[in-house]
Design a protein that fits this description.
This protein is of the alpha+beta class. The chain contains five helices and 13 strands. Strand 11 and strand 12 form a beta hairpin. The C terminus is likely disordered.
Length: about 260
């Protein structure tokens, strides 16, 4: 003899299987998983950003730190604080020794970041960066300038010294140029020649020196900077050039003579 169960009774049997303790345990598991995903979000975002920057900068020496509030905001591409440090990388057209940046309220494309490890920055609230460039880095970039050939670069506090062949008045002359750098705009630097000598140390008249400035400037075209940064200041140290940059509207403060 078979025994059948009425539909209402079957529902009561299924409901009886879910004891209050089981429901509470299931809720705990779900909440724990959600909390773990939230807490892990900045770490996951930092790893994704690092991989994207390694590809963009062309160096494995990249460190990234990410903070978000709430932590889960990074899943939508919202980063409250982003710190980046890299060594021996390429920015735009320039090989640089070091790059350090701290930025706030960074918004990135989450689909490209997590799906393809590509960094597309939608906006940056504020930020500052420092780029360290060596004399060898500068020499390689200057060698690509049509007005400067076979150039050697020396850097001392406040002064850049160029020895090479320069084009002025349609002629190529061996010259030594001592000067300082100033920021022209968001991505370019100008050389202000303080002293120019040619042919065994003969000084160049001021009008010729000014024509030389016009022919070789902008002396450095950095190209597009990451995170929408723009140049704000340049200073010259012993063997290194320090570039300062910021996020937001350009506000050039000039160079250090």
């Amino acid at each position: 003899m078979s025994v059948s169960t009425a539909p209402g009774a079957r529902g009561m049997v299924r409901a009886s299987r879910w004891k209050p303790g089981a429901l509470w345990l299931a809720a705990v598991v779900v909440l724990t998983a959600a909390l773990a995903a939230s807490l892990a979000a900045p770490s996951v975002a930092g790893t994704a950003l690092r991989l994207a920057l390694v590809r963009s900068f062309g160096t494995p020496d990249v460190a990234v730190s990410v903070e978000a509030q709430p932590a889960s905001a990074v899943w939508w591409g919202n980063i409250r604080l982003l710190s980046v440090a890299a060594r021996s990388l390429r920015i735009g057209r320039l090989d640089v020794a070091g790059f350090e940046a701290i930025m706030t309220h960074v918004v990135v494309d989450p689909v490209l970041l997590y799906g393809r490890r590509e960094l597309v920055v939608r906006s940056v609230g504020a930020g500052v960066a420092r780029v360290t460039v060596t004399a060898d880095n500068l020499a390689r970039l200057l060698a690509a300038q049509p007005s400067v050939k076979r150039v050697a670069v020396r850097l001392s506090p406040g002064t850049i010294l160029l020895d090479g062949t320069v084009s002025v008045f349609g002629a190529e002359l061996p010259a030594s140029v001592a000067g300082h750098l100033v920021v022209r705009d968001a991505t370019h630097l100008d050389l202000v020649a303080d002293r120019v000598t040619v042919m065994n140390g003969l000084p160049v008249p001021p009008d010729v020196a000014s024509r030389l400035d016009a022919s070789i400037n902008p002396i450095l075209d950095i190209g597009r900077l990451p995170f929408g940064l723009h140049l704000t200041k340049v200073s010259i140290g012993d063997g290194v050039l320090m570039l300062q940059a910021a996020a937001g509207a350009p506000a050039v403060t000039g160079g250090t003579p």
